[in-house]
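haha ok so turns out i had the wrong file open the whole time. this is the CORRECT one, sorry everyone. sequence first:
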Amino acid sequence: MNKERVRRLEKLGLMRDEGRDALPDMNPDSFVIDPVVEQRLKEERQVYENFLAFPALYQRVRMDTIHSVKNQPELFARRLDKFITNTKANKMYGQWHDHGRLLDY
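then structure:
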């Protein structure tokens, strides 16, 4: 979500050179889904179709939440299971759009 906040600041003309100098790769296309997560998503066709229909920002935020705990197997599994369950129900959850600020800017 922080990268999307930076993109918003840039578009609004509020980003400074000092901030830009500290940034990692900001290209949204550089985001890659972990192979384990992708495999789970593709186990059920409907889950994967629902996932692909979600907004790209939601996909990236949820994936980052799961990827960030890859080195904690139990937490990783719980987060992935919760995500799969909600995706199967075609339900988005969490504060993925910063209270609406990241939807349309």
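The mean pLDDT is 86.
again sry for the mixup
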